[in-house]
TrEMBL record:
InterPro entries reported in the protein's UniProt record: SSU_processome_Utp11 (IPR007144)
Region (Disordered): 1-31
Keyword Nucleus attached: yes
Keyword Nucleus included in the entry's annotation: yes
Gene Ontology BP annotations: rRNA processing
Localization terms from the record: Nucleus, Nucleolus
Family, similarity comment: Belongs to the UTP11 family.
Biased composition (Basic residues): 7-17
GO cellular component: small-subunit processome
Domain of life of the organism encoding this protein: Eukaryota
Keywords from the named record: Nucleus, rRNA processing
Protein name in the entry: Probable U3 small nucleolar RNA-associated protein 11
Gene source species: Eudyptes sclateri (Erect-crested penguin)
Length: 253
């Protein structure tokens, strides 16, 4: 127990406790209170001592002194940046790494292509967005036949199934067998959403497979550029394709 608390206890007074600074305001610095003058003074003197030590160190520094950071550092926008040493790699090692990169990307592309084929076999591209709509042309001899034409009668099915491009049984089949599959509108809507999600996944995989093919081509181009053969750039590199170079023909024995 401190002396202040013992004195307050003897006099019968209630000891006074100072309220601590809220944690949310600690970032604003010390409280501007009379009781904090010593803390603020100590903080100020600590900073001043640090500044004086840095000034003394700068004055005592020998301008002719050499240290290795002088040749490994440079000043960029007022900030000293230390240059990182470059890795020493031979051209043969670089070619080997490029080859391994190409093999890895090609392996991932082939795996993606197999998944695409499996999805296509499951979906059969039914009602896919962006797919060219199927066209069924009917020929007639007279205008009267065109005016009296009924597509449901011509296809021998019920009008409710005319808009279907798949699973469209005839009336004779419906009389013999029950309609297979979902017929509830809510269930049909749910199946349509699931089918749409599958098509979206298929589209993403196709785009990923194309991107991997482009990456493999760009890596192969960079690998070919390691050869010390005279070459001329014909076309710049784009997001959809690698740069095209024309190499000088050399006859090899």
């Amino acid at each position: 127990m401190s002396a202040a608390f013992r004195k307050a206890a003897k006099s019968g007074q209630r000891p006074h406790r100072e309220r601590a600074q809220p944690a949310s305001r600690k970032k604003l610095g010390l409280l501007e209170k009379k009781k904090d003058y010593r803390l603020r003074a100590d903080d100020y003197h600590k900073k001043q001592n640090a500044l004086r030590a840095l000034q003394k160190k700068a004055l005592d520094k020998n301008p002719d002194e050499f240290y290795f950071k002088m040749i490994r550092a440079e000043l960029q926008d007022g900030v000293h940046i230390i240059k990182q040493p470059k890795d020493e790699v031979t051209p043969e090692q670089v070619k080997l790494m490029r080859t391994q990169d190409i093999k890895y990307v090609e392996m991932k592309r082939v795996a993606e292509a197999k998944k695409i084929e499996r999805l296509k076999s499951e979906l059969h591209l039914l009602d896919a967005e962006g797919k060219n709509p199927n066209k069924h042309t009917f020929f007639f001899d007279t205008k009267k036949e065109v005016q009296e034409f009924d597509i449901a009668t011509h296809l021998d099915t019920v009008p409710e199934l005319v808009d279907r491009v798949y699973n469209r049984p005839t009336i004779a089949t419906l009389q013999k067998e029950t309609l297979k599959g979902a017929t509830d509108p809510a269930h049909l809507k749910k199946l349509a959403q699931q089918r749409k999600n599958q098509y979206d996944l298929l589209k993403q995989r196709i785009e990923r497979e194309k991107a991997m093919f482009v990456i493999a081509q760009k890596i192969q181009t960079r690998k070919d550029l390691l050869d010390k053969t005279h070459k001329v750039k014909v076309k710049k590199e784009t997001t959809n394709g690698p740069a095209i170079y024309k190499f000088k023909f050399q006859r090899k024995r």
